[in-house]
Specification:
With 226 residues, this protein is of the alpha/beta class. It is built from ten helices and six strands; from the N terminus they run ααβαββααααββαβαα.
Length: 226
């Protein structure tokens, strides 16, 4: 998805006094694999606009959760927290496959000349429509989506040892990410639930922003409950 899916939350956080960057990952599917270094470069290049030495909190939604370890390892600034939002989790050790064998079996028939349709075109209208609060925002988000190569989902992403050397937490919207949320709990992470569809951050940017602030706060400053 494109940065417009997180712009409403970013606006709420900026209004509350936080400095926020929303790097675009729209170009990471261009060219030949591997694709994960382009994700790392996009985030690292965008964060160069933040003063050196300033601590950052990473927020990763959906498939972007898999890229947190390599991104964390590449950053030359302190990372004081990561919040996974309705996100896939990187493997505890060893490379992480971007897609399960079942998902690849689903995707391969959809590919035309090696490229997949836009993500919202994978699903039935009854599944897609509830994700959007209004037609105008849906048009903007859908138009921004890239068409990724099938090989993007066939890649495996390295998991550097020690990437989780900072507090990690998980914000769950709903199924099918209740499984990763349960695993996050098993890893000892803090998990909270804000019920909604997979793009709930565009439906309730205020609630999403509040949860991010709570999950990113130092342990002693947290007031909410899991």
């Amino acid at each position: 998805m494109g940065p417009s899916t997180w712009r409403p939350v970013a606006e709420r956080l900026v209004a509350a006094g936080y400095q926020v960057r929303v790097p675009t990952l729209l170009g990471v599917g261009s060219g030949a694999p591997p694709f994960w270094p382009r994700v790392v470069d996009a985030v690292r290049d965008d964060l160069r606009r933040v003063p050196a030495g300033r601590p950052v909190v990473l927020v990763a939604h959906s498939n972007a959760g898999l890229f947190v370890p390599v991104t964390r390892a590449a950053l030359d600034r302190p990372v004081v927290g990561t919040v996974f939002v309705d996100a896939a989790l990187p493997a505890r050790s060893g490379p992480t496959p971007v897609a399960t064998p079942e998902l690849l079996d689903f995707l391969r028939p959809l590919a035309v000349d090696g490229r997949l349709p836009r993500w919202t075109d994978w699903w039935e209208e009854a599944d897609v429509a509830p994700m959007f609060p209004n037609p105008a925002l849906r048009r903007a988000v859908v138009a921004e989506q890239p068409s990724l190569p099938l090989s993007y989902y066939e890649q495996r992403i390295p998991v550097p040892v020690g990437w989780d050397d900072h507090p990690c937490s998980y914000l769950l919207f709903g199924p099918p990410y209740d499984g990763p949320a349960a695993e996050a709990r098993e890893r000892g992470w803090r998990v909270t639930h804000l019920p909604g569809e997979h793009l709930h951050q565009i439906v309730d940017p205020d609630g999403t922003a509040r949860h991010l602030v709570e999950l990113a706060a130092p342990e002693g400053n947290r007031t909410g409950s899991a």
